[in-house]
Specification:
This protein has 275 residues and is mostly helical. Helices cover 76% and strands 0% of the residues. The two termini are 49 Å apart. The mean pLDDT is 80.
């Protein structure tokens, strides 16, 4: 077999490999993008209720139902005083409504509230804080005495009406309920179960990156294209380098083929081993 025949065989084999491999990568990448787009559409269906809940908690915080413990900690002259504040039963409740209120206000100021995407870490925080609001009011009897629950009765008709509108947009079943801290806790529980739990699952799926194997395959195919097609065509005019190149390219191609076999076989064994 002469050099020209071997050269043509290498170029042909590599071209077939590249012609099959790159469309496969494009297919995986396109499917990954389409999957993310479908997930995002579903994710956004939950955002109106989540944002309504954030606005509700922001308004609850504005009533002064719980003391501003951050301000009290700043006024405390000694470290012991700060620690005593953190030991208060309602401190966790304050942290929850303070975080949600500040995040909502920040989004309103930046005008990103209608188009921003919450990442998985943010949804985890909302899950934790919504659960805190629900649990502290419904499952603890020692926290309510530290809250200024009378603040709800002192709201203006406009503030009360707006808060009722928000609650109805979250769950219409509360249309005849009086606004109390107990109702706010119920709404927080509804949001946790009906909105945040699905968002945790969907957002985690949305943030899954493209499989690492695709990047490895792209690198392998690019190397094959360089070694098996581009370099041979370029070096055809330098016949005295042909023998050296053929030895290098044959070894490289054999290594690439075996690497592909090892990668795909290992991936298959690992996936089936997990199942």
């Amino acid at each position: 077999m002469n050099f020209d025949t071997i050269l043509n065989s290498i170029i042909t084999a590599t071209s077939i490999l590249v012609a099959v491999g790159f469309p496969f990568i494009i297919l995986i990448t396109t499917n990954h993008k389409s999957r993310k787009e479908r997930l995002l559409i579903e994710i956004k269906t939950y955002y109106p209720r989540l944002n309504a809940f954030r606005e509700l908690i922001s308004k609850v915080s504005a009533t002064g139902i719980v003391d501003n413990y951050d301000r009290l900690k700043q006024k405390a002259k000694k470290e012991e005083g700060k620690k005593e504040i953190e030991k208060k039963e309602s401190y966790g409740f304050y942290r929850a409504i303070d975080y949600i209120s500040k995040e909502y206000s920040k989004d309103c100021l930046s005008e990103s509230i209608h188009y921003r995407i919450f990442n998985f870490e943010e949804i985890q925080k909302y899950h934790s804080y919504a659960n805190t609001i629900w649990y502290d009011i419904n499952c603890r009897t020692d926290i309510v005495k530290e809250l200024n629950t009378s603040q709800f009765s002192q709201m203006s008709p406009f503030e009360r009406g707006r808060m009722q509108e928000i609650i109805l947009s979250i769950n219409p079943k509360y249309k005849d309920d009086e606004i109390t801290i107990g109702l706010i806790a119920k709404v927080a529980g509804d949001i946790e179960m009906e909105v945040i739990y699905p968002l945790l699952y969907l957002t985690q799926k949305y943030e899954e990156p493209i499989p690492p194997l695709v990047k490895k395959l792209f690198f392998t195919l690019s190397s094959s294209l360089l070694v098996g097609v581009i370099i041979p065509l370029f070096m055809m005019q330098y016949m005295y380098l042909m023998k050296l190149w053929m030895l290098i390219s044959i070894v490289s191609l054999i290594t690439i083929f075996y690497s592909l076999i090892v990668i795909f076989t290992g991936k298959y064994i690992w996936r089936n081993g997990k199942n």
